[in-house]
Amino acid sequence: MTLAGDPKAALLRRAGEVFTGRFDAAPDVVAFAPGRVEILGNHTDYNGGWIISVALDLGVAAAAARPMGESGGGAGIAVYSETLDSERTLSLSDARRAGDWSDYVKGVLLELGRRGPPSGALRMALASDLPVGSGVSSSAALEVAVASAAIAATGQAPPDRLEFARLCQRAEADFVGVPCGILDQFSSIFGVAGGFLFLDCATHEHAEITCAPSCPSVLVADTGVRHELVDGRYADLRASCERAATRLGVALGRPIRFLRDVSVEELERHAEAIDPRDRARAEHVVLENERVLEGRRALESGNLTLLGELMLESHASSRDLLGNSCEELDLLVDTARDLPGVLGAKLSGGGFGGATVTLVDPTRADATRERLVETFARRF
User: Fold this and answer.
1) Set 45, 103, 160, 184: catalytic member
2) Range list of β-strands (E), 175-216
3) Which pLDDT belongs to residue 234?
4) Cα separation, 227 vs 239, whole angstroms
5) What are the backbone dihedrals phi and psi of residue 299, each rounded to the nearest 5 degrees, phi first?
6) Residue pLDDT, tens place only, 272-283
7) pTM for the full model?
8) CA distance 185 to 164
9) 140 neighbors 170 (Cβ within 8 angstroms)
10) String of DSSP letters for 32-69
11) Is 174 annotated in the active site?
12) What are the two backbone dihedrals, phi and then psi, of residue 25, each rounded to the nearest 5 degrees?
């Protein structure tokens, strides 16, 4: 989370200009929150597992102000999205969802209202350079930017960073209805330039791992295939993993809250106790957790080659076991893996479309990008 003066000054200025053009006044505050890509840990977050991610230099900026002479009651909250050219007026006294983008904003404001006084009248304008539905966490960036701007504009005491992430996660999971883990919000709030993030999603132990001896470029390739996490497929994967954990708990004779509490050997020994489809998804999660822990060791020792190999293994597992890839994502990963300077590539985020993330030698980034564009255009 950053404020004006940091590298996203252009987007921050744009949000301020959008606010002024829409509401004929200057904003009191402008806040920025980045998107993220997951390097390792596909669908491990809600399974209580481990994740490695990086924040992007793309994100969402929110400009906000409290109108003169208006306060209290939670009424008169006007929010405008430049990306969608859409304005909504929200009332926090009505907890019903609208079924559109404004639910993410309303969910955050409702959560903030539970911490302290309601926001009262508020005007907010949003600007973004993140593609929506591409697996780069545009929703979490929106939540963090909105919360940051609303807190600053209303004078509410900010929470600590972990509670901030939990607050935004609750807004998406409990109000919007996407049963997400904490990865996206954590990455948006804790992300730093030149560093990877490690997160234990059960204990919230976390660490920043700087690049050693040098940083690769992070190349994000957007397929243009939009996923909708509220369409049931994401929830289906989560329910499948929870069923597998329950069945394994019965077979092992101990409570299993998360699949992180199951070893590879235990899963293999009791595989027949689980529905085949649930078993494949559980296998992905258990093996993916092993990859994340090995990836952390690789990063800490500066072994980026091994990290890249683990990314390729992760994508194959997401494709074959979890079932959340698609032919567009597979083409981008298969193309990238054979190019000079590429360390590794995989899908990022919920899957079923969206984007891939590729780690590549900075001197080869432009050539890699051009080859991915050419190959994708010939096929799709």
Assistant:
1) 184
2) 195-200, 206-210
3) 81
4) 18
5) -65, -45
6) 999 999 999 999
7) 0.88
8) 8
9) no
10) EEEEEEEEE-TT-GGGT-EEEEEEEEEEEEEEEEPPTT
11) no
12) -160, 160
